[in-house]
Amino acid sequence: MKDIKVLGSGCRTCVATADLIKTEADRLGIAVSIEKITDYAAIAGYGISSTPGVVVDGKVVHAGGLPKAAAVDTWLAT
Questions:
Q1: Architecture of domain 2-77
Q2: pLDDT tens, 15-62?
Q3: What is the pTM of this model?
Q4: Which residues are CB-neighbours of 40 under 8 A, at least 6 positions away?
């Protein structure tokens, strides 16, 4: 199971990012645990200055803007 954290304030783009990750994981048949982190101190702890940020299995893979589906597929496959 992939441990995924979506870092952000809970804005529309952050919600869309979490939804995109869930959709792609379901499509690929990959089990994921998605946690939404909204605490700014916790977000800063990952070195993220632009949200949404995405952390997969402890590694920051994205910061700022809605990611592309192809990028999400790559994160999930590795």
A1: 3-Layer(aba) Sandwich (3.40)
A2: 999 999 999 999 999 999 999 999 999 999 999 989 999 999 999 999
A3: 0.94
A4: none
